[in-house]
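User: Predict the complex.
Assistant: Input components as received:
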Amino acid sequence: MAKQILLKNIEVPGLASFGVYRQLGGYSAVEKALANYTPDQVTNEVTRSGLRGRGGAGFPAGMKWGFIDKKTENPRYFVCNFDESEPGTFKDRHIGQLNPHQLIEGMILGSYALGAKTSYIYIRGELFYVLRIIEKAIDEAYKNGFLGNNILGSGFSLDLYCQPGAGAYICGEETALLESLEGKRGNPRIKPPFPAVVGLYGCPTVVNNVETIAALPWIINNGGEAYAEIGIGNSKGTKLISACGHINKPGVYEIELGLPVEEFIYSDQYCGGIRNGNKLKAVVAGGSSVPILPANLILKTAAGETRFMSYESLSEGGFQTGTMLGSGGFIVMDETACIVKNLLTFAKFYHHESCGQCSPCREGTGWMEKILHRIESGHGTMKDIDLLVDISKHIEGNTICPLGDAAAWPVASAIRHFREEFEEHVKLQKCPF
Amino acid sequence: MPLLKVTIDNIEVEVEAGTTIMNAARKIGGSVVPPAMCYYSKLEGSGGKCRTCLVKVAKGSSKDTRPMPKLVASCRTLVQDGMVVENRTSPEVMENRRAITEFLLLNHPLDCPVCDQAGECHLQDLSYEHGLEETRTEEDRRTFEPVDIGELIKLHMNRCILCYRCVMVADQITDKRVHGVLGRGDHSEISTQIAKAVDNDFSGNMIDVCPVGALTDKTFRFKSRVWFTKPFDAHRGCTKCGGKTVLWMKGDEVLRVTGRKDKYGELEEFICNSCRFEHKETADWVIEGARNIERHSVISQNHYEKLDLPENAVEGK
Ligand SMILES: Cc1cc2nc3c(=O)[nH]c(=O)nc-3n(C[C@H](O)[C@H](O)[C@H](O)COP(=O)(O)O)c2cc1C
Ligand code: SF4
Ligand code: SF4
Ligand code: FES
């Protein structure tokens, strides 16, 4: 059984209540840190753990904390990114809904390390029921002296708020999130400056993903080094994977980074294999934004080596033959899946979610959707396939935020690996599935 | 402060720290200047959106000589000492500019013959210089009904390229947040809440900053093609603004009053609505002389050639 850090107690009834969480050892990391560690020592433990951001980009958390401007007189903020809306990704919800105190404990630790006196959990608008659960947990934490003034007599005070968004994928991009949190339209900011210098209300700010923050209590309790012993290469610790699609056991799994992809898909402990004994066709390994890979390339690299669930192994081969770990949204397709139709669904999503600030993304996402719609419904031409590649190339890298890239990569990779299937749609003048 | 040296398309220029690549290029002038559809030097926070000004940074600085991994928006990227920038000399930049132009035209009606902005439209100029000769789209464009923004301004969303300039004018001239963009992506539109900024005496400047025919002057709409009018610099003693304007005349008739624009199409000064909309008699103005339009588009073609000649300049009234 793989090491369980995030989901260890997830099935304990009543875990969302303060009493049960506390009984299982909850909030001991806050007690430990406030009594024995300076804020910088907390940061050091996180740096030592090798924990990388679980929101998609995989940026080392300790290093990000190190960038925060501690010299200014201005307040500093710690913000949790709970906007989780990438198609295929539903891991943060699992924590927020079933174990909210773990997230709150992480928020207290991060805020202490960064010197934030006010912190926010920004939650996706559609997750209103989770907001209610978190708000109740925040109330309990205040009542029990873990939030508010002078926590545990340490002199450290913290106010924590949970703020719902209005339901926009783009508000998961950290600077759009900050705009939205300030009450403005959620347009991504032009960087630099980065949030560590100019963040919420112009003050130094760190934004981290729910899963990143939820790992903090364990790291403080057990030490950064213990965390770094789990995993492989520069992929330390455990990762939540939300698995869905044509598998026998969809769900949220905690894996040790470094698990072979094949084991993850076929072992009964995880996905339990492909439904009805069907053949594996393709996998989108890290949420809708990352390149799709055909079965042969997801199980083994182009060089014929075993592919592992880790940042490095999944990106082995670059975009030609590799992909990314991303947010951990693992979408599996069997032989009955139509790649074009699946891609059209993604394209619709990006078109709908583009904020529209910059012209390549605003216009290109809609254009790609229309062309894909044409191909899928049997009205496409061979030229359309090349046109799609051309459009995706001119969006990629030319936009303010990575949503443009996220819209372009799935298109480019689907055509790279499944071109015949697009051509078949054109030749038959209909979808062959 | 020591000056920073930057090379753009093989031409070296020295600028102060804090200068953008765009403004360094404007200091050199000529074809080295990237086109700007959203940046507007007088509007705080503008730029970064349209991406027509993307350039290649072949060398980051003398300290860090690496090239930048992606093309950068020249209007929002600061110059470093020793930086080497490629604009027109980079095939990659030109290729992407073609693509950006195509993106901007994707939802823009190709009906310049019936658009009031034709002849002084920056998108027309951009397409002329960087666009493809034919369109690769067969999809429907998005359509809206034209709406009034107050009594004096017409908004035609079909033509809007969402550059946010008008929004920033509204932001700058009012201290309340009374305007904005509604919706997302290619379904977003300039909010008619912007109408609330129209009470403001300077709202007419939104027309002048609009690079396309999305915001037009209702007192001038369809009165004349702009190239059939003659521009004259004029002024009047105005208590609200500097009163320095351009009169667009046909014979003795003042068809339109606008602010004075520099060679990048930017207003030199905002003018007030009273000067713009209420003073349409020649008697209201002291006419300084014919205005030389330094643009390469339709507006400066044909019969304006003569206006460049000193003997044809009209002095006084
Ligand atoms: C379009 C877009 C959507 C994003 N959505 C999320 C999200 O829902 N949750 C998240 O944690 N990060 C999201 N990110 C990444 C954030 O910008 C940011 O990198 C992350 O929150 C940092 O936290 P981490 O370092 O702990 O991963 C998104 C990025 C982009 C470009
Ligand atoms: S890339 Fe798309 S989502 Fe990101 S800022 Fe540009 S238009 Fe908005
Ligand atoms: S109406 Fe004109 S100025 Fe306003 S955003 Fe559209 S194009 Fe820009
Ligand atoms: S002018 Fe620079 S991005 Fe528009």
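The interface with chain B takes residues 168, 170, 185, 190, 351-367, 370, 387, 394, 397-400 of chain A (CB under 8 Å).
Let me know if you want any component modeled separately.
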